[in-house]
Amino acid sequence: MGHIPFTWLPMNPDAAATLTDAFPPPIPIPITTTDGALHYLNPRLYASLVQPAVQTAAEAARRRQEEEDASVRLVHLLITCTGAIQAGDYSVAHGNLSEARGILKKIPTSTGIGRVGTHFADALAQRLFPEYPHAAALPTPPPTATPAATYNLFYDAGPYLKFAYSTANRAILKAFEGCKRVHIIDFALMQGLQWPALMDELSKREGGPPELRITGIGPNPTSGRDELHEVGIRLAEFARYVKIPFTFQGVCADHLDQLTAWLHLKLRPDEALAMNSILQLHRLLVDPDADESTLPSPIDILLKLVVKLKPKIFTVVEQEADHNKPLLLERFTNALFHYATMFDSLEAMCPLVTSAAAGSTSTSSSSLAEAYLRGEIFDIICGEGSARTERHELFTAWKERLTRAGFTQVEFDLSEANMAIADLISVTSFSGSGFGILQGSGGLALAWHGRPLYVATAWHAMGGGNAASAAIAHTKGVTPTIKVGTVAAAAARATAATVE
Questions:
Q1: The pTM of the whole model exceeds 0.70
Q2: Which residues 6+ apart lie within 8 Å of 215 measured at CB?
Q3: pLDDT beyond 90 at 475
Q4: If exposure means fewest CB atoms within 10 Å of the residue's CB, which of 65, 242, 359, 375 is most exposed?
Q5: How far apart are CA 46 and CA 118, in angstroms?
Q6: CB–CB of 15/483 below 8 Å?
Q7: In this predicted structure, what is the pLDDT of residue 31?
Q8: What angle do helix axes 57-87 and 90-104 make, rounded to 10 degrees?
Q9: How far is CA 326 from CA 90, 290, 320, 337, 383, in A?
Q10: CA-to-CA distance for 142 and 217, rounded, in angstroms?
Q11: Contact (CB, 8 A) for 395 and 443
Q12: pLDDT of the residue at 255
């Protein structure tokens, strides 16, 4: 598979003050919902408009204003519908949703707010249907694809997962320096796309490559195929190609907190251990107001296990979003703005794609990649309690939780940030001037026009107890300092790479 360099442009540090300040200051376009709350909307987030075919500048300006007004009205209706659902007023919610669908028939749905609004309107229809069965028809299902295929296509559609993999690999490679035997436990092996690049780097190590063992965790098979075994075979073939000693072990587990008895992993004292979690820890969270007197939450069970195993490095990548809210309206509003940014960046990667959710029968790879984000939206809007798994939280919450569990952060410095940028440039086949890498509070963030989308961090166990409490107290109230990597210099060092 051939690759071409990725173009990263330096960003103004003033445009991104902190990793957690994910949204620009609101402008005075207030929307009042049924609960009396005001929501300030920024049309620039969602009103990416298709240039109409016009004959005069005046007509073009009028058309743009009409579509912008319709965009603001659409968002107002979606938020008001959500508030009505939360209040149990399903008749009002149905009316709001029907009007919103009417607007979606009048504005472009392959771009901008039409594209994003379609997914959220469909999610609200799905949420409303059980309580109001005679509401509008349920949304058209997205293109058919297996979860693995959808994940792979999301990987191909943009730099999101490439960023996650490259930054985690950089931390793991540094932790493995000088080690003759190394072991990686991957909490979500998926298709193993993260590991060929790391194998390639290990094969070039001065003095020869180490012995590498990967334990890949994945769900129990739902069909006759043993996908973990198939991925392991592909990784073994690549390891043979780059001449690195390699062994693989697959572990089936539908829930990570069930991995409490890992005797079958046979951890070896002479191995350097790394543990890797890419977009998985948020799935173990519970509602913030859950009863603390109940059994330990899944996230606490898993983190306790990781601390016990004492890996040299624990790499974590999570969405920089705030969707773990018990109230639907707050969750919906946060998600709407986050995914507006995500779709805006995705649209820059795939500007000519027609949204499959908007009625197209296209099953293009880009439409299937879009279905990956659509699945997250539906989970956030339609799921309640234990039925909801996409419980994204902000970096500050993760830092406090991991520190309290007994971890100390292994910080990425500016030189490592530049190397991570160079890694990403060398392995991606896309270009986009709106992406950037932010450095702050020891982590790295992939940002779109200054808005962090994904944050990568690295940790190791420090024993917990009073030391952990002191570290939390030290970090509370501290505003992360954001630095921007010297992207031009990194790009100059990067070389095109091809991995079969």
A1: yes
A2: 183, 184, 185, 186, 248, 249, 250, 251, 265
A3: no
A4: 65
A5: 12
A6: no
A7: 52
A8: 160
A9: 19, 9, 18, 18, 11
A10: 27
A11: yes
A12: 85
